[in-house]
Amino acid sequence: MTDHHSPDTDPGVMPTFLVLEQDALISSDLIQALEIRGPCRVLHFSSTQDAESALRGLCRVEAAFLEMRFDDALNSALARALASLGARLVLTLGEDAERVACHGWHLLPRPFTERMVHDTLAEG
């Protein structure tokens, strides 16, 4: 796990985001796009098992960017745990945006831009 947060701010009062991504370049781009929005805490994981373990003790997650396809997320204990923490679920794999949206989730297609990340967070 990598925990990124603004050094001058208490991580307990900042919005918390989770990034599940194996590719270092993609995770770096996501983390940077989130941090540019303002002070926040970003938890980065390469495996679902590590992410699930780290959720213990968290009260809220604003959004989670998951390297998962819809069917995998639908059957994922991690996605269920994140939803129980209030997280907006954003899948970064797959192409069926309508199916994802019908479930109340979001799809961030690759390749994405910083603006696309921000727009995804601004969507209702």
Structure characteristics:
6-stranded mixed beta sheet; single chain; Response regulatory domain-containing protein; 124 residues; alpha/beta; 6 helices; 39% helix
Q: Regarding quaternary structure, how should these chains be classified?
A: single chain
Order of helices and strands: EEHEHEHHEHEH
Total number of domains: 1
User: Which CATH-level-2 architecture?
Assistant: 3-Layer(aba) Sandwich
Q: Determine and state the CATH class.
A: Alpha Beta
The major beta sheet can be summarized as: 6 strands, mixed
Euclidean distance between termini CA atoms: 29 Å
Mean pLDDT: 92
Sheet/helix structural class: alpha/beta
Strand order of the largest sheet: 1-3-2-4-5-6
User: Which spans have pLDDT < 50 for at least 5 consecutive residues?
Assistant: none
> Which fold name corresponds to the CATH topology?
Rossmann fold
How many E strands?
A: 6
Helix amount, in percent?
Answer: 25-40%
Report on this structure.
This protein has one domain (2-122): 3-Layer(aba) Sandwich (Rossmann fold), CATH 3.40.50.2300. The model has no long low-confidence stretch (mean pLDDT 92). The radius of gyration is 13 Å and the shape is globular. The protein starts with a strand and ends with a helix. 39% of the residues lie in helices and 19% in strands. With 124 residues, the protein is of the alpha/beta class. The protein is built from 6 helices and 6 strands, in the order ββαβαβααβαβα. A 6-stranded mixed beta sheet has the order 1-3-2-4-5-6, with helices on both faces. This is Response regulatory domain-containing protein.
